[in-house]
């Protein structure tokens, strides 16, 4: 097993040790203080040495341990320890690698100085309180500032040596802020306000040292920023390149930590504390641009990606980041990309953190519960909303697009549902949040945010789920046109029962006539599709009128003869044949070619049609067949009596495809 020595004491040093824990290497980790030791992980392959080590002791340790590699991850301002490590490595001919911390870009409003003495000299001519965030070792350099004990506040590590240095410099206890980082922008801002600071003094610690957060907090607090520049650094490698060395030379493996987090409606206030802390600690955030802008901390690495495969590819090719947070709008289990993303992250350390859904947020704003609410998404997907609203008292819809709400309300109005109540939630959780109430008809021409949600309430839902609408519910002829044939209610109910439709069935109705079967198919297969094929133009026109009468978006009228008109249609899961014009064998062959497992129900009245269907039974590889003869009779009034009038007997053929899928 390879033997590595790490001189840590910084954020990236700690992260490097966390990476090495459990890897196929033996690591000796040196930190300057016992407090630094408490921040490091415990592992069988990790040995931790705490305390300041003179150069002579470092030399003896390297001679004794014969390390394959020494990694210097000390602070960029700790030049003396870096010099000692370099000297020891030269003396013992041990390979040395410097882990470099990336510098931060400086803006024009920053005062850059060479060292602590120069910072103190500049501050002597200023007014207002000063917050020092450069540690306790150089406090004495600032003691000459006028009113030092009144103006200066020092944020230092909570260690005895740091507190003693503050007392030795003459700082009052109320001006000593003993805290352990890392610090968020919010914490930096709160500290500046606590000190009522006009100036903040810091070092260029880069992103790992929290410099972007300090700079942003100073701007928000209206405080000037004094930055002590870095000493010249030795040649080295950034964190990602160091990991690459460990991976290629020593067989270390990279297992990224990926947290998929729901950020709620979008504002930080609506996030759970766990989600907020995970985002703050992430090396890289991934998600849609608008969400990244809402939650990323200053200087945080981000990736604008939405597609699950793009996200997974980025994670697997950017192993320089160890902790990823994939941000999802709302809740991770509520119409998010989480379901598709998780299978693509095999081998990663994954966890899912839920968030506040837009459904629960809107209902809370409306002071109503949501256990009885049906939920659908119209955002980036097709959904036949009309049957849902007709059958449901309360329905919640996620809506997207510039005209999404307008299109929804217009669809409801044109579907004879303009009277239903609609509550539109826009930019929920943001300062400009807006909730609009009205009927679908009233809201059709409004102006709405692109990302909106809607709660629809129907006071009189139609919850009938059984087939067999009365015959007079359908138009059978238009003015000046002959009566179009129609499958009667009793037969229709049996045929639909034999079909065993599902909510998402794709159905063909061949020889559709008035479309009575097509309409009932579409009402049952709410999220599916019905293709009604009719060769007579007058009948196809009437069929279209019946479709509009029931406002069925999922019913498509095809004017033409089967099977030719059916070739381009989507593969059916179910088919009803009410008329074949002598092409029964060809129609059945096409159905099975499209889907070998299609379920077919066909009716026959004439003996010729019965013969055609009977010939089909042995000609095709059906897994199941059934033939039922049905004769219905209806009452009619004859004077003071009621008599039953028999209708033509009808044969119902059920054929379940059982062939191999092509």
TrEMBL record:
Pathway: Cofactor biosynthesis; adenosylcobalamin biosynthesis. GO terms for molecular function: precorrin-6A reductase activity; protein methyltransferase activity. Residues 259-443 form the Tetrapyrrole methylase domain. Signal peptide: none annotated. InterPro entries: 4pyrrol_Mease, 4pyrrol_Methylase_sf, 4pyrrole_Mease_sub1, 4pyrrole_Mease_sub2, CbiE, Cbl_synth_MTase_CbiT, Cobalamin_biosynth_MTase, Precorrin-6x_reduct. CDD domains: AdoMet_MTases, Precorrin-6Y-MT. Keywords: Cobalamin biosynthesis, Methyltransferase, Oxidoreductase, S-adenosyl-L-methionine, Transferase. The keyword Translocase does not apply. Pfam families: CbiJ (PF02571), TP_methylase (PF00590). GO terms for biological process: cobalamin biosynthetic process; methylation. It is an enzyme of class 1 (oxidoreductase). Its EC number is 1.3.1.54. Transmembrane segments: none annotated. The keyword Transferase applies. NCBIfam families: CbiE, CbiT, precor6x_red. This is Precorrin-6A reductase. It comes from Brotocaccenecus cirricatena. The gene is cobK.
């Amino acid at each position: 097993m390879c033997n590595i020595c790490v001189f840590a004491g910084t954020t990236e040093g700690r992260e490097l040790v966390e990476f090495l824990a459990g890897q196929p290497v033996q690591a000796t980790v040196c930190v300057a203080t016992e407090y630094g030791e408490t921040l490091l992980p415990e592992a069988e392959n990790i040995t931790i040495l705490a305390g300041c080590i003179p150069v002579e002791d470092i030399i003896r340790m390297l001679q004794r341990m014969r390390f394959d590699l020494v990694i210097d991850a000390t602070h960029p301002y700790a030049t003396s320890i870096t010099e000692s490590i370099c000297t020891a490595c030269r003396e013992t001919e041990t390979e040395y690698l410097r882990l470099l911390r990336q510098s931060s870009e400086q803006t024009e409003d920053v005062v850059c100085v060479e060292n602590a003495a120069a910072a103190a000299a500049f501050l002597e001519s200023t007014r207002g309180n000063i917050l020092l965030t450069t540690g306790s070792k150089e406090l004495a350099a600032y003691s000459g500032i006028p009113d030092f004990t009144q103006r200066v506040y020092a944020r230092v590590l909570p260690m005895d040596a740091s507190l003693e240095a503050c007392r030795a410099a003459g700082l009052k206890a109320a001006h000593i802020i003993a805290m352990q980082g890392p610090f968020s922008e919010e914490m930096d801002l709160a500290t500046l306000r606590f000190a009522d600071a006009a100036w903040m003094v810091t070092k260029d610690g880069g992103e790992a040292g929290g410099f972007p957060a300090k700079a942003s907090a100073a701007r928000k607090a209206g405080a000037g920023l004094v930055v002590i520049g870095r000493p010249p650094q030795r040649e080295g490698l950034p964190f990602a390149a160091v990991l690459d060395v460990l991976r290629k030379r020593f067989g270390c493996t990279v297992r990224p930590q990926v947290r998929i987090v729901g950020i709620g409606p979008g504002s930080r206030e609506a996030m759970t504390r766990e989600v907020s802390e995970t985002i703050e600690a992430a090396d890289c955030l991934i998600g849609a641009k608008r969400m990244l802008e809402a939650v990323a901390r200053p200087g945080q690495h981000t990736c604008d990606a939405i597609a699950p495969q793009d996200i997974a590819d980025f994670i697997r090719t950017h192993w320089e980041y160890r902790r990823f947070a994939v941000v999802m709008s709302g809740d991770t289990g509520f119409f998010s990309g989480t379901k598709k993303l998780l299978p693509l992250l095999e081998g990663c350390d994954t966890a899912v953190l839920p968030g506040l859904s837009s459904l629960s947020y809107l209902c809370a704003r409306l002071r109503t519960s949501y256990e009885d609410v049906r939920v659908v998404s119209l955002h980036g997907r097709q959904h036949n909303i009309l049957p849902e609203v007709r059958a449901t008292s309360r329905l919640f819809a996620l809506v997207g697009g510039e005209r999404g709400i307008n299109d929804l309300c217009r669809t409801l109005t044109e579907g004879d549902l303009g009277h239903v109540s609609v509550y539109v939630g826009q930019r929920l959780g943001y300062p400009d949040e807006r909730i609009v109430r009205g009927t679908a008809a009233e809201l059709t021409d409004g102006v709405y945010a692109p990302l909106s949600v809607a709660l629809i309430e129907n006071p009189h839902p139609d919850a009938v789920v059984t087939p067999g609408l009365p015959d007079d519910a359908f138009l059978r002829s238009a003015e000046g046109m002959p009566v179009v044939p129609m499958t009667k209610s009793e037969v229709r109910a049996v045929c639909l029962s034999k079909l065993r439709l599902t909510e998402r069935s794709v159905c063909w109705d061949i020889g559709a006539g008035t479309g009575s079967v097509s309409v009932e198919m579409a009402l049952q297969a709410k999220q599916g599709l019905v293709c009604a094929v009719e060769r007579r133009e007058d009948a196809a026109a009437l069929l279209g009128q019946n479709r509009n009468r029931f406002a069925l978006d999922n019913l498509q009228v095809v004017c033409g003869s089967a099977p030719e008109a059916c070739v381009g249609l989507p593969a059916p899961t179910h088919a009803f044949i009410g008329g074949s014009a002598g092409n029964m064998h060809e129609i059945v062959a096409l159905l099975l070619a499209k889907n070998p497992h299609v379920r077919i129900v066909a009716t026959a009245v004439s003996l010729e049609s019965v013969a055609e269907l009977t010939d089909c039974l042995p000609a095709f590889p059906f897994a199941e067949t059934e033939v039922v003869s049905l004769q219905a009779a209806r009452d009619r009034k004859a004077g003071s009596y009621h008599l039953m009038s028999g209708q033509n007997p009808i044969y119902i053929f059920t054929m379940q495809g059982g062939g191999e899928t092509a």
